[in-house]
Amino acid sequence: MLKRILVIAAVLAGIATVALTQWETRKRVQLLATECERLTNESEEQRAAKNRFEQAAREKEAALAAATDSLRLARAEQSTSAARLAHMEKLAGELQQKLEQGKADLLALEKAKGDLNTAQKQKSELDTENSVLREELRMLAQKLDRQTTHTPPPDGLRGKVIAVDPKWQFVVLNIGKDQNAQTGWTFVVSRAGKLVGKVRISSVQGDRSVADVLPESKHDEVQEGDVVVPELLPTTPADRR
């Protein structure tokens, strides 16, 4: 009886051991399933994280490529801008040189204008002085003519005006020392039979002489080609004797 009890007890103990073992195994299996599920979830999360990382990496690469292109474009634009700036600076330098040259030319022009005005003023003064001197010379010649006895021009003497200076009012006649011309001789100037005026010789050369136009006798402007003949002098008592 005792033996049976022991056998039963041993069987029960074995059953209990098996049951305990199964319970522990089931528990371990559950733990392993939970751990496996946890690992699976972690793997999914890691895969998602990896995908997110890869997506972020691709986005960063795209952004880096865009930034590189933008930088390349910016550098190209900077190079173009630098070239344009250098060109503009060169143009500005050339314009500045032209401006300085223009200022120098303007100063030179103003100086030349001032010199011209001064020269014109001096010329005007000289013209006035010459006019006064010629008038004084003419009056002196007239006075000398009145005080000096001249040999009268020969009969039949005839000449022409070969040059005229209307500014200084003198003419050149083709009558000179070769025709025994003398200063002080007065000639009547005519054109086509009409009286033009009178001239008086002021200097004599070999084949020509210079004669002043007498303003008080002018009827017209003396011209080249006008005919000159000696003025008829009034008969004096000495001539009558």
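Above is the first protein from milestone M3; the second protein from the same milestone is given next.
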Amino acid sequence: MHRRAVISGLAVLASASGARADDEKKIYLDYTQKQLDDAYDQSVYAPNARQLLARYAAASADLAGRIGPPREIAYGPKPIERILYYPAKRPGGPLFVFVHGGAWHAGSAANYMFPAEMFLDHGISYAAIDFDGVEATGGLLAPIVDQVCRAALFCARAPARLGAAPRRLVLGAHSSGAHLAGVALTTDWRGVYGAAPDLFTSALLISGMYDMAGPRLSARGAYVRFDDASEAALSAQRHIDRLRTKLLLMTGTRETPEFQRQSRDFAAAVAAAGKPVRLRIGTEYNHFEMMESLANPYAIAGRGALELCRAA
């Protein structure tokens, strides 16, 4: 009995040791599985996430209540394939086209209209794109990238319908939206859409992801369908040769470590390729505070957006 108890105890210890080893195993860079999952989970690093998301929606609704609801125009046949926009009072100025985040499965353009007031105050039209989440695409990101590309092409070909001048378009995006925008900017525009690759004069990409190796191995891989081909195709950092747009990248010091690294690495890779890029760091900003700063002309994202629009 004593011998069996000893053997049983040793087996339990071995099992526990094996479990700890699995927990401590590095699966990507210097991350364990839990650490990598946390590095792609904003709520772990932004305890005020729900508050800020609610504030985006409330501020957007408040704006609609004060100046009227945004106008709406379709860029495709599906109900969700629409652009919400506020044209500037005086036509012919720049247009800021925004791609929202939401981890590829949440968010709506209607809740990201709150920055429009700042742009309108400076004579800039503002538009936000709506598109599917992965629940509607069977877990695939490529159809969503196509929606963003088609919406961008619509804006570039018919800017007057949105209150803007031709060739004065600036692309803006946040989080997973910045990922989608990055892929769009490195798309083979001539080969796929028969269009010139310089639709936008510049782009502001806030707190994005530009290589899919990490997200694929994280918990996000449970609801997004990745394989080797899609990982490569959806990694803007691997297609910098097709980039024709000046970039302003941003991230905050309170972001997750992966979202900080992604922006640093992408900026370094673009610079190494000899293409125009700047990286700005928001001190003490978390992921959602970076987005909120887009509505403030004196904060990091709002100031950067206005710089790009004035130069357009």
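Note on the second protein: The first helix runs from residue 2 to 24.
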